[in-house]
Every structure is written in C-alpha cells, then in structure tokens.
Design goal:
Helix 16 packs antiparallel against helix 17 and helix 16 packs antiparallel against helix 20. By secondary structure, the chain is mainly alpha-helical. The strands form six sheets. It has a three-stranded parallel beta sheet. The structure holds one RNA strand.
Length: about 500
RNA sequence: GCCGCAUUCGUCUAGUGGUCCAGGACAUCUGCCUCUCACGCAGAAGAUCAUCAGUUCGACUCUGAUAUGCGGUACCA
C-alpha cells in the first residue's frame, strides 16, 4: 500500500513550488490507490506563523488536492502535527545514543558561531564532523561521565548524529538514479535540540517510519541531506522499510536564474502563492492565484506540466487525467522557469470551458458591484457572446460594460480616424433605418450595408466604426448588428443621437 | 571554498546509440476570417542538442574533463 505525505512547516504562506510538491504527491497516491497524508512540521517554534497551517489547508482544498489523513482530518497514525508528537521523539534520540549512533554536545551557539568566524578568517568552513568533534565539547571528547555530570547539573545540550568516518552512502533517487556521498564530508547534524524538540531530520525519519510512508516526494533542496536520512534509517534498523526517494527539480524565476521568490512575483506581475496572504506581523499583503481570478483547474494543470510531461503531446488534462497519466519516471531533472504567458494560456483554456451560466454569474457580480441590475437572460446572452475574449473575471467589466451603460466618452484616436465631418448624416440614416426596418439581423444588415452604404459607395469601415464609436465608445467588440440587437433599438438610437450631438 | 544536482528553439519540454540536418506547446511574425478588437484557422521563423576530448562503424543519447547555473554547507525546514 502506497503512502505518501506532504509535510510543510507553517512558517508562512505555501509557495507555488510547495503546491507542486503536494500535487505530485497527490497524483502519485491517487494513481497507486494509496493514501495521502498532511503532516505539519512545526518543530521550530521560533519560526511559527499563526494562520499558516490554516492557509495551507485552505489552499490545497481550493486546488482539489485532497488528503486521506492529516492534521485537519485525523487518521489512524495521528497526531499529525509534530509539536503534538513532541513526547515521542526523545526515546528515539535515546536509542541512537545508546547504540553509539549519536552523542551529547554542549557547545553554545555563540561558541559555534565564533568557531565559524575563526575558520572563515582562514577562508575555510567549519564543519562539526569526524575531524573536528574531538576539539569540541561533547560526550565523545569529554567522556560519558563528564557529560552525564553536566546534564545532571542542568547544562543545556543537543544530540548530534555520529557519522561514521569514511564510508560511501548511496541514495537511490527515483528521478536521478544513484547519488553517492562520502560520510567524511558530511557533518554531525543536530538531531535533538536543547529546547527538547527534535530537528527536521530526526522528526522526519521517525514520523515517516511510524506513519509507514512508502515514498518521499520532496524538493531538490533536500537531496544534500538525503544521505543523513538513509543513515538514520540504517541506525534505527529500519532500512528494509525505508521509503523510496524522489527529489523534485526546483521552480525558477522567469528571467535570469535563481529560485522563484515572492519578490519576483510582485515585480513581474504574477502571484507566487495560491491564495492571497496577509502577513500577521508586517501587515503586508501578497497576491494569490485565487484572488486574481485563476481557476483551480488551470493552476493545477499548469503546475503539473512544470517539470513533468505525460509522454504525449497532450497538454490539457483534468485532475482525473493527471492522476491516470502521472508517472514519476517522466519528471524532468532540471529546474523549470515559471512562465506567466503559459499560465495565462491555461487560464484562458479553462475559462472557455466554463458554461455560459457560470460566466453570467461572474458577470452579474461585476454588474451588481456597480449598482446596475440586469436580468439573467440578458446576462447569459452577453456572457455567451463575450466569453471567448476573456481570460480573467477581472476583465469582464472592462470588455462588457457597454452592454450595461452607455459610453460617457469616446476614444479620441478612433474618432479622429473614423468620424468624418459628414458622419452625422450617416448616423441619422442609421436611426431612420432602425425606426423603419424590422428589428432583426438580416433586415438591418441588408438595409444598412447593402441599400445604404454599398448603394451610395460609402466607406464601410468608416460608417460602421463610427456607429461602433457611438454605441461602444471605441472600435472594439463583437459583430455590430448583433450588438445592436442585444442592446435594443431604443438604447441604440439614444446612443447614436448622443454621439451626433457630442461629436458633430 | 567544499559537496551535490543540472545543462536540447526566448520559455516549458519530446528524445533511453542509427528511424532526428531534432518533434510538440506557449510566446513572436505572416496570412485567412472581418465594419473593429478579440477568438478561431492556416503557415513561417526559431536549437552548431553548453564546450572540449574519448568510446563506437555510428552519439543529443555512453564516459571523462571544463564552463555555467542552481541547491546544500544552521540547535531552519
């Protein structure tokens, strides 16, 4: 039985790269008929941000990434929040201590900092490892007796992993193959902090084991510490049930190089967070995909394809299709640059899949916000006609406003180009035609285009666009006759009269 | 600095030794449609497969160096 987890730490809003990690875990779990677990890794109380956990849950829910077990829904392997599991980790640290896989260290943070400075001055980097631990204050250099004495005296300490001296550790990665590192170059990571909390490394391995996780799908930033994790499974004697690893490539910023950051989003005009986020400390607001009007299906589809492909030319895929087609071996190895253009294309595609009723409902919201009422049939007619030229709900009012309010001003450039001095004569003729011929497409078209414009050798573009300026305010929009038919005879005449008055 | 990962059109990518003088998508450009703007449709342009060396009858595909980018190097995750 496949069991995967998404294990964010609640230090702020979930980054779009984190969302992709969650998505890949979800797709894999669903496809394999396995379970998807949400575990909150809040072992660092200093970085805890109120509201972040709720944000993560809400964001993934909005995108349709569902969990089978987790901090918000419970499950047989709970609790799912590491701070609620605090009491559990100590015994595992003790086991490692007892088996000689770990040791106590008493070095104060200031002392370590000083040591790092000292090395830095010599252009070297200090590493707490097999070469330096004998010079530090720990139970290996001091002896167990002295260490115990200090502990009994209440001196703060941490527990560090004791890396063996010169062994090659190979991590098998589902995406990259075998990655080998030598233990001599790895440092003795802190497993248990002086505040009584485990670090990520310990808590992660213990929880993944206890929760019977079979596959760890996480960001590439974890690859360097994967050998430590493999060693921990070995030290605990859990190697036979160790999960398989897949380290995902990073999401990069659209221009230049480097990891996608919040700053890039603000600068280039796209969100890096799924939902809008209000920072509780600074009060700063960061935009979200949802608030900008992106459809969750579009975000999911776009994210899925950023670093993965189905092996065919198909690009538009629903969540169900993604689940069916997902394959870890088709995840690419290199980082992917986020593209706003591609995101917009997906959004446009999914917006077109919305029904006329759905678009009408969105349009009604915009209309009501401006204190205008419109009946449902009319809204739906406009929605059906205008949908194809819209990508975001926020464009709705801008592109459809003239269906609800007469233009208050006329685009200067368009007027200069189309509204010739004699135009009031032709516009008056339009009014006459509307007043005399049946109010239907073919009749108006025939009377205006054939019997008047063509018969009098008038410039079709000038007359029709002037009419458009009168009705819309500028030379954009759908078929002119259809537009008149939609807006209505009286309203059209009123607008043309006003334009004659104002422009002639 | 050290360790690790990566490197195919502007971007996302296909490609698992001959079928590739490299395919698709987005973006760009052109044409069609047309009263306009979009949409749509059709087409074009765009990659010495980072560089160098090797293995091989043959390399984008395998190996090694170099370069570049990224990640890690915390009592953060």
């Amino acid at each position: 039985m496949v069991r995967v987890r998404f294990a964010p730490s609640p230090t702020g809003p979930l980054h779009i790269g984190g969302v992709r990690t969650a998505l890949y875990n979800y797709l894999f779990a669903r496809q394999q008929g396995g379970k998807m677990i949400l575990r909150i890794e809040d072992t660092d109380q200093t970085r805890f941000v109120p509201g972040a956990e709720q944000y993560i849950i809400e964001a993934l829910d909005w995108l349709g990434i569902q969990f089978d077990e987790g901090v918000h829904i419970g499950g047989p392997f709970g609790p799912y929040r590491q701070s609620d599991r605090k009491a559990l980790y100590r015994q595992y640290a003790d086991q490692l201590l007892a088996d000689g896989w770990a040791y106590y260290a008493f070095d104060r943070p200031e002392a370590l900092e000083a040591k790092r400075k000292e090395y830095e001055a010599q252009k070297k980097t200090f590493q707490y490892d097999c070469n330096t631990r004998s010079q530090m204050e720990n139970s290996l250099s001091l002896g167990m007796e002295e260490a115990q004495r200090r502990i009994d005296a209440g001196e703060p300490y941490v527990v560090r992993f004791r890396f063996p001296e010169n062994i090659d550790i190979t991590v098998h990665d589902l995406i990259r193959g075998d990655v080998t590192m030598n233990s001599r170059l790895l440092d003795d990571k802190v497993l248990f902090k002086s505040d009584g909390m485990p670090t990520y490394h310990l808590a992660n391995i213990v929880d993944d084991h206890l929760m019977e996780i079979t596959h760890v799908i996480r960001g590439e930033e974890w690859l360097p510490s994967a050998p430590l994790h493999v060693m921990l499974y070995r030290a605990f004697g859990w190697e036979s049930t160790m999960p398989q690893f897949a380290h995902l490539p990073l999401l990069l910023k659209p221009e230049g190089n480097g990891k996608l950051s919040k700053r890039d989003g603000d600068r280039l005009g796209f969100p890096v967070f799924p939902l809008e986020w209000h920072d509780p400390k600074s009060g700063e607001v960061s935009s979200g995909y949802r608030e900008q009007g992106y459809l969750p299906q579009a975000v999911v589809n776009m994210l899925a394809l950023l670093g993965w492909h189905p092996g065919t030319d198909q690009e538009l895929m629903s969540m169900d299709e993604l689940i069916r087609l997902f394959d870890i071996s088709h995840i690419s190895k290199n980082g992917a640059k986020f593209s706003l253009d591609k995101a917009k294309w997906f959004q446009h595609e999914y917006f077109q899949q919305l029904s006329d009723e759905q678009v009408a409902a969105l349009l009604e919201k915009e209309v009501l916000e401006r204190g205008i009422t419109a009946n449902h049939d009319y809204l739906q007619r406009v929605a059906a006609m205008m949908k194809e030229r819209i990508t975001f709900p926020s464009e709705l009012w801008d592109t459809c406003s003239y269906f609800f309010v007469a233009p208050t001003e006329y685009n200067e450039k368009d007027v200069a180009k189309r509204w010739t001095p004699d135009m009031h004569i032709h516009m008056q003729k339009v009014i006459d035609i509307l007043n005399t011929v049946p109010f239907e497409h073919d009749a108006i078209h025939h009377a205006l285009l054939d019997e008047y414009i063509a018969a009098n050798s008038l410039n079709t573009g000038k007359v029709m666009n002037s009419l458009r300026i009168a009705v819309v305010g500028r030379t954009v929009g759908p078929d002119m006759i259809t537009l008149i038919l939609t807006i209505g005879k009286q309203e059209t005449i009123r607008r043309v009269e006003r334009a004659i008055e104002k422009l002639s």
